[in-house]
Design goal:
Number of strands: 24
Radius of gyration: 22 Å
Helix content: under 10%
Shape: globular
Distance between the termini: 36 Å
Order of helices and strands: EEEEEEEEEEEEEEEEEEEEEEEE
Strand content: 35-45%
Length: about 280
Amino acid sequence: MDWNSDGEWDIVSGDRDGYFNVFIREGGDLTAYYMVKLMDSTVLDAGYNSQPAVVDWDGDGMKDLLLGTETGYIRFYPNRTSDTWPMFQDFTDVVAGGAAIYLNRVNPYVFDLDQDGVQDLICGANDGYVRFYRNTGTNANPVLAAAETLRTTTGTPARASGNAAGSRCGFGDWNNDGTPDFLISAFDGMVELFLGAPVTAVEQGARPSVLRCRPEPTVVRTTLRISSPPSHRSLLLAADGRLVMPLTAGANDVSHLAPGVYFVRSGFLGEGPASTPSKVIIGR
């Protein structure tokens, strides 16, 4: 990451002793190392097994620090100076579902996993599983829901296959197919790739370009987001043709859908819904 906003990639790391370290790159080479100190000149020390995620967590345009710890809490250190050289002092524990997150040897990662434009929190931990904390707030004011365990499309919890203790994960579009994938590593040192396979998929119907269903990669849930343009009238139907609900223009969050096959019919206003629907598959 670019720690000092000079256009060159630097390196940040935690360590076994709980410190937070920055390695600065200049002219293509690593030229300086800093054990980060707080604004009162004391060393930033999280105890043991610190794991940093550097991100603008409060939407003020400056890099902040989320620091995972041996004790299981995630510390949020807001940036008190500038984006050019972040400095921190006080911290608060990150809360999800109304309580402080507590996972032994927690490893936080910030990524918009549900692709709704708001950054979420994903955490590895000592038990090897990966928890997803959905941000139901905004980027400026994150509000995290209670944990969901990331699962494959078969319902199996995503976990490193070897000695999975201390899982750490990273997210991105590995194969450039538009679906988030993730890498996971653990105590045995192996790195494994999970390719994203959306739990919710949309097959082409008569008007595939007018509807957008937002997938939920690797997370088993029963909420579907369908976006319908203002110029269309759309209906969500059960597999037997029964009307589940009419869809309004814009984003529709449809909750509590049981796994199964549904259909979306859509047509221009005045024409009625198209005769050939788009199929929506909700799986577990």
